[in-house]
Amino acid sequence: MKQKISVIIPVYNGAKYLPDCLESLKKQTMKDWVAICVDDGSTDETPRLLDEYAKKDKRFVVVHKKNAGVSAARNDGIKLAKTEYIHFMDADDILDNNYYEEMLKVADDADMVCSGFVSNSKYSSNLTYKKQHLPDTLFGKLFWSQALIKSFVWRYLYKTDFIKKHKLKFDTSLISQEDAIFVLQSFVFVNKLIIVPNVNYHYIFHDTSALNIKDKKHHDKLKKQYKIGKEFRKNYAKNNHVAFLWYFRKLIKILFHN
Predict the structure, then answer these.
(1) Strand ranges across the sheet with 85-88
(2) pLDDT tier at 202 (50, 70, 90 boundaries)?
(3) Is domain 5-255 given the CATH code 2.60.120.650 in the classification?
(4) How many angstroms separate the CA atoms of 90 and 22, rounded?
(5) pLDDT tens, 132-185?
(6) pLDDT tens readout for residues 22-46
(7) What three-state secondary structure class fits 198?
(8) Phi and psi at residue 5, in whole multiples of 5°?
(9) In terms of Cα–Cα distance, which of 109, 108, 86 is closest to 35?
(10) Has residue 2 got a pLDDT over 80?
(11) How many helices (H) and strands (E) would you count in the chain?
């Protein structure tokens, strides 16, 4: 049976939290998925864990490669995806058990399906939905998704043909903000976007998360790339005549506060 969704999971030294992520997939009420797990040159127990899962469940497909970063790993996953939909998941996060079932219920012919999320991170507040939204303008799509502010790629279920038709790729020069740029570039082309209520992605912020790495050079690089992402989002809003959403983003954030 051909699976419906390719779940692309880049992993680098994620052994501590990886089992929670993979077990979250196994608990999905919608079983027609395949997980493309890209081991990005891990030096911990990640390769062994992934191979064990793949041996027990053929829905787990493992790719071992030399370390090249999260963007390159996701791009490799896109090339391998042969399903109708693609979802990008981080290796230390989890999903509501009915996440894919609820997303597919309304997907129809949408290019992108967007969910809410809950977070334990001080860097991002929750964003959940009680009603379904089907915005028909770029302003509406950006407003309801809050893509200019909460530009996380794991919130979206993508039609695979949509990604490949528009040759969407992650910028391999970035270790931060690469998903924001990918998401907003997607919005340039998206025709139909559906926002799904009552189902959430769970963003888990750990002591091993990129923002918590105690290394000055790493932090300096993150700060520099955050500025790149911020400038990209601001210019994107201006160039697409939705500058209001950027300049009033703090007010909008309050309106959506959960």
Answers:
(1) 60-65, 33-40, 5-11, 85-88, 156-159, 112-119, 193-203, 94-95
(2) very high
(3) no
(4) 10
(5) 999 999 999 999 999 999 999 999 999 999 999 999 999 999 888 999 999 999
(6) 999 999 999 999 999 999 999 999 9
(7) strand
(8) -130, 135
(9) 86
(10) no
(11) 10, 8
Alpha helices in the chain (DSSP H): 18-26, 46-56, 70-80, 99-107, 138-145, 160-165, 178-189, 216-239, 243-247, 249-255
Does the pLDDT value for residue 218 go beyond 80? Answer: no
CA angle 84, 157, 92 (to 5 degrees): 115
Q: Which two tokens stand for residue 138?
A: 């770029």
Task: Find the helix packing angle between 178-189 and 216-239, rounded to 10°.
Answer: 20
Give φ, ψ of 146 to 5 degrees.
55, 35
> Does 214 score more than 50 pLDDT?
yes
Is the torsion defined by CA of 226, 234, 168, 106 positive or negative? Answer: positive
Domain ranges of the chain: 5-255
Tell me the residue type at 151: S
Return d(Cα 236, Cα 216) in angstroms, integer: 30
Q: What is the mean pLDDT of residues 115-144?
A: 92
Q: Classify burial at 223, counting beta carbons within 10 Å of its beta carbon; exposed 0-12, middle 13-18, buried 19 or more.
A: exposed
What would the two tokens of residue 173 be?
């020069």
